[in-house]
Design brief:
Elements: H1 2-25, H2 30-52, H3 54-69, E1 74-77, E2 80-84, E3 92-97, E4 100-106, E5 114-116, H4 117-122, E6 134-138, E7 141-155, E8 158-168, E9 176-177, H5 179-182, E10 187-191, E11 194-198
Parallel strand pairs: 4-9, 5-8
Antiparallel strand pairs: 1-2, 2-11, 3-4, 3-7, 6-7, 7-8, 10-11
Helix pairs in contact: 1-2
Pfam families: gag-asp_proteas (PF13975)
Transmembrane segments: 6-24, 36-53
InterPro entries: Aspartic_peptidase_AS (IPR001969), Clan_AA_Asp_peptidase_C (IPR011969), Peptidase_aspartic_dom_sf (IPR021109), Retropepsin-like_bacterial (IPR034122)
């Protein structure tokens, strides 16, 4: 590692020397040469820092993008997915439905995974309100929902096809990931503040 860093420094010094010699050969004034040399030194310094700390910058970038995507509480080890409990005491995750990101609250008390009508429409999940509705009991009382099928639902390394779901107008922005998803996993369990999902 030390040899590699030393080689990088020598390479940078050599490149900078070539730039300085090129400037001197053009017979530019000493002050102008000095300003240009300092500018090149600054450029080389920035490039050197970016290269040296590339792994740290990659970690920062991954954290920022996961925060923006809402997946900061999700991590993958091999094929195992770990979900960290949120500040509200619940487990939530972001799944992909037909390639579109959809947030879910994990609800082991829900028999069937249920989408809000807004999320279903955004993800291209078709349902027909002219069909006979299913009446379900929720925390807010009884509500109508309609049967539908999700072509593909993916949570990190876990992918399920043709998952039966309900679509409801009464969920607002909340989507519930229920037991019919969890039951198709190899296993799932809660350990402290982690929910562990295994395909």
């Amino acid at each position: 590692m030390l040899m590699e860093t030393g080689g990088q420094i020598l390479y940078a010094i050599g490149a900078l020397s070539l730039v300085v010699m090129a400037l001197v050969s053009r017979r530019i004034s000493m002050g102008e040469t000095l300003r240009m040399a300092l500018g090149w030194i600054a450029i080389f310094a920035v490039l050197f820092v970016l290269f040296s700390f590339r792994s740290e910058f990659k970690q920062i970038w991954n954290r920022v993008t996961s925060d923006l995507a809402g997946t900061a509480n999700q991590s993958v080890t091999g094929s195992t997915v770990e979900i960290t409990r949120g500040d509200d005491g619940h487990f939530s995750l972001v799944a992909e439905i037909n390639g579109r990101s959809v947030p879910f609250l994990i609800d082991s008390g829900a028999t069937i995974t249920t989408l809000s009508s807004e999320s279903a429409q955004a993800a291209g999940v078709e349902f027909d309100r002219s069909d006979y509705p299913v009446i379900v009991s929720t925390a807010n009382g009884r509500a109508k929902s309609w049967r539908a099928t999700v072509g593909n639902m993916k949570v990190e390394t876990i992918s399920l096809d043709n998952l039966n779901v309900h679509v409801s107008d009464n969920l607002g922005e909340v989507n519930l990931l229920g037991m019919n998803f969890l039951d198709q996993l190899g296993s799932w369990r809660v350990q402290g503040d982690k929910m562990i999902l295994e395909p």
